[in-house]
Fold this protein.
Amino acid sequence: MAEKVMVKGNEAMAEAAVRAGCRIYFGYPITPQSEFIEYMARRMPQIEGVFLQSESEVAAVNMVYGAACTGNRVMTSTSSPGFSLMQEGVSYIAGAMLPAVFVNVVRGGPGLGDIQPAQSDYFQATKGGAHGDYHLIVLAPGSIQESVDLMEDAFRMADEYRMPVLILADGMLGQMMEPVEFPEFVKLEGINDHSAWALRGATGREANKVTSFDIDPVNLEKMNIFIQEIYKRIKAKEVRYETIGLEDAEYMLVGYGTMGRILGSVVKLARSKGIKVGLFRPITLWPFPYAELKKAAEGVKTILTVEMSMGQMVEDVRLAVEGSVPVQFYGRTGGMVPTPDEVLAELLKHV
Amino acid sequence: MSKNFVKIDEERCKGCGLCINFCPKKVLSFSEKFNSKGYHPARQHDPDNCIGCGFCYMMCPDTAITVFKETAKV
Amino acid sequence: MTEATYKRPESLAKREFSYCPGCHHGIIHRLVAETIDELSIREKTLMVAPVGCSVFAYEFFDVDGTVAPHGRAPAVATGMKRSLPDRVVFTYQGDGDLAAIGTAEIVHAANRGEKITTIFVNNAIYGMTGGQMAPTTLLGMKTTTSPYGRKSETEGFPLHVSELLKETAGIVYLERVAVSSPQEVRKAKAAIKKAFTVQLKGLGFAMVEVLSTCPTNWGLSPVESIKWLNENMKKEYPLGVFVDKVGDLK
C-alpha cells in the first residue's frame, strides 16, 4: 500500500476512479466539483484514457450513456444543478441497464442555490430524480478516505448489477483536504466482461440492441420486473452503515456523509457530559438500511436525525422505526453546516 | 422475350405506388387483391417490357422489390 | 444469364419497416444499409437511433444499436466513438430530433469534428407525435400546432440546419440531398457513402441532410407528396454540397 498523501476531496475521488479502472470521463465544469473535471483533464491523457469536456451536463450524461453501451467503465461528476440536468439520461441509463458511475458534489439549492455544502438532494438521489420505476445505488462517504474506498465498490456494483451508481458527496467533502491512502490499480480482466450485451460490433454474433424502449406494455412491465429483481438482490447484499457507541445508547443520532462525521464528534461531546448517545450512519442511502436501523434503535428513547437540509432522510428513518421510537429532526440548509455544539444543544432539548 | 423482371414481396408492400409512378416502361400496377395489411400491393403486369433499370427498387420505401436483369447472353 | 441486380441489402434486419406507405425513411434506410454492405463494415458499425418516427431504426438494421434520448444521438455517438475509436458510429435523426431539441448536441459534435456520421432526415414536420410544427416547417405550412399556417411573426422562420453547420470548423463533409426520383436516390447514395468514408478515413464529422416526404401528416398521397417536396421544400432547402474538405485532408 502506498503511503498517505494530502489530497483535496474532488481530486482524491477522481484518482480513485482511475485506480478503479475508469478510463473514460465526460463532464462539465460546476462549482464545487470543478477540481474533479480538472484532475481528469490532466490525468486521463497520462494513462491513455478518454477525457472530454462536453457542451452541457445534458450532453455529458448522454456521452456516458454511449460509452456505457460499449461496456467500458465510464463516469461523470457534477454538482446539484448539473445533476438535475442529467436526470433524463440517468433514467435512460437505468432503463437500458447500463453500468455507469456518477458523483454529485452536492451544493445548496433549490434552483441556482449557492456553492456551499448541502444534503438537500437526498430525495433526488434516493427516490428517483427522473421518470420511471428505477433506483440508483447511492453511496454516501463520510470522509475523503471513505470516498476513495467506495469508488472501487461503485464501479464493481455498476458492472455487477448493470445500473447507475451515485456517490453522493457534498461541497465539504469535495473541497477539503485530508491525508488519503490510495488503493492499488484494479485489474479489469475477467471482472467486467459485458460481451453478451455490449455494443462493440456484431462480429460473428447476432446484433446486440441496448434500449430502455419497448412499445409493448406487457414486455415493458416484464423489463421493469426484471430490474426490480435485481434491486431485491442489491437490498439483500449491499446495505452498508456504521455505528458508534450504540451498545448502551439511550439516544441515537442519525446522519450521513459530512453530517454523519460531525455527529461522531457530537457523540464524544455528549458522552463527555454523561449523556449516553450513539450514532447510526447509513453509508448506502439506497438501499437504505431500514431493518438495521430499526434493530439499532431498540431500547433507544429518542432518535435525532440531523441533515444539511430541511429534512429528507428523516422520512426514511421514520419509515425504518415504524413509530417504535420518537424521531426528531434538526437541520440547516442553503449551505449552512450545523456545528457539534449546535447539534448538542438540540439534542439536550430532547433529553 | 425479355429475361428482365421484378419480384415483389406482396406482404412487405404497402401499396404506396412510388414504383408504379417511376417505372419508365409502365410495366407495374396495383394488384386487385389485398395483402394481410389491407393494401393493394404492386404487381408486374407486363414483365416482357421490363428493362431491369431498378427504378422501382430505388424508389421502394419498403425494400419489397428485387430486380432480376439479364446480365450476359449464355 | 439472369441475376438479382437490385436486392435487399444484408445490413437490414428482416423485420418490416413501421413507416407509413410512401414515407422516405425506408428508402434512406436502404441507402445506409447498402453503404454498410458495400464498405463491409456491418460487423463494426454501431448505430444510434433517435426519438421520432425512426425511433425503431435500431431494430431495422442488422448492426449493434441503441436509441438515444430525444435529440441526444450525437452525444451518445460521441460516447461510443470515444470509447471504441476503431468502430463506425452513426446517428440517424429526424428534424424534430436534430433541429429542435437536439440543436446543441449536433452543433457541438460537428464543431468538435467528432468522427461520426449523421444522417439527418428533414420532412419539415413532427411525424410520430401527429404532424406538429417543426423548426423546419415552411412558412404558411399548416400543421396541428400551426393550424393557421406558420407565421414568422410568432413562430419564427424555417431553420436551415446545414447552412448553420457549414460554419463549424470540424465538419468535413456536408451535403443536402433528396430521394424524390431514381436519379436523386443515386446521388443520395453517393453522398451517404462518402459520409461514411470520411469516418473510415478518420477525417472528422460528416452529415447528409435528406429531404423527405411525410404523406400522412402532409395530407397528400405518396406521389403528390413528392411533387409538393419538389415544388416547395427544395426552394426553401436547396440541394447541394455545403462542405467538402475530403480532398484537403487526404
About this structure: The mean pLDDT of chain C is 97. Chain C has one domain: 25-249. Chain C touches chain A through 35 residues (CB under 8 Å). The domain at 25-249 of chain C is CATH 3.40.50.970 (Rossmann fold).
